[in-house]
Design a protein that fits this description.
Elements: H1 10-16, E1 20-25, H2 39-54, E2 57-59, H3 82-98, E3 103-108, H4 115-125, E4 130-133, H5 136-145, H6 160-169, H7 191-194, H8 213-233
Parallel strand pairs: 1-2, 1-3, 3-4
Helix pairs in contact: 2-6, 2-8, 5-8, 6-8
Length: 236
């Protein structure tokens, strides 16, 4: 069974003796009419599950609500402040350090969590080993490996890549309608001021019509492959 939450026992983790923990960070925000509010959480948790299957990692349960203020015009979206997200992650990192874990990798599923970069930078400046994954280059590599038809810029939200990942990992979460929901906005320079509602009525920015389960599978495989670089950078 494909779980969104880790199901290991304390004995499982004792035997695994993982030195690195992976923390999926999602959101609870609109993703058009065909993807659920938990889309980013499901994607981040899926990536972490695949990583934990390949590498000796402590898979943590996801943070399910984060910084989704740009989506606040849509019913159902819930956010926390950047300060709150910062505090939650720092507390988790401190707990892991006390438990003897060598490093924490933040696996981010929501592009609006800008504060995560600052958290990682500050942690490493304090000699607390932390990384952010996937990077923009990891996503670019995954798009290339899966032969996606869109760029990262045009396929911003609820588009080809997110729909493909869920079609592969959790097809039961994908509803009808994505085949006719394409909406591309090339110039959105004032997104931080206007929010998503200033550029799209449907909440979509991308081409979900191009999505497929095979593409989603290839995206995940590429990310799992690239994660080895993170472990090398952490010297683990």
């Amino acid at each position: 069974m494909n779980h969104l939450l880790p199901t290991s026992t304390t004995e499982d983790e004792r035997q695994r003796s993982a030195r690195v923990a992976v923390l999926p960070i999602g959101s609870f925000e609109q993703h058009g009419t065909y993807l659920p509010l938990i889309t980013d959480t499901a994607i981040a948790a899926t990536i972490c599950q695949e990583l934990a299957d390949e590498y000796p990692l402590l898979q943590l349960p996801p943070i399910t609500i984060s910084c989704s203020h740009e989506h606040s015009a849509w019913t159902g979206t819930v956010s926390i402040s950047a300060q709150t997200l910062y505090s939650i992650i720092v507390d988790i990192a401190d707990s892991l350090n006390r438990a003897g874990k060598r490093a924490l990798v933040l696996v981010n599923g929501h592009g609006g969590n800008y504060v995560l970069s600052n958290i990682v930078q500050e942690a490493n400046a304090r000699d607390s080993r932390m990384a952010l994954f996937p990077t923009s280059q990891d996503w670019k590599d995954a798009r290339s490996a899966a032969q996606l038809g869109t760029t990262m810029h045009e396929d911003m939200h609820a588009g080809e890549i997110e729909t493909s990942i869920l079609l592969h990992a959790h097809p039961e979460l994908v509803r009808d309608g994505y085949g006719a929901a394409d909406w591309v906005v090339e110039d959105r320079r004032h997104l931080l001021v206007k929010g998503m509602a200033g550029y799209t009525k449907s909440g979509v920015m991308g081409r979900p019509s191009l999505a497929s389960a095979d593409k989603g599978k290839a995206v995940i495989a590429s990310l799992v492959h690239n994660f080895a670089d993170i472990l090398r950078e952490l010297n683990l």
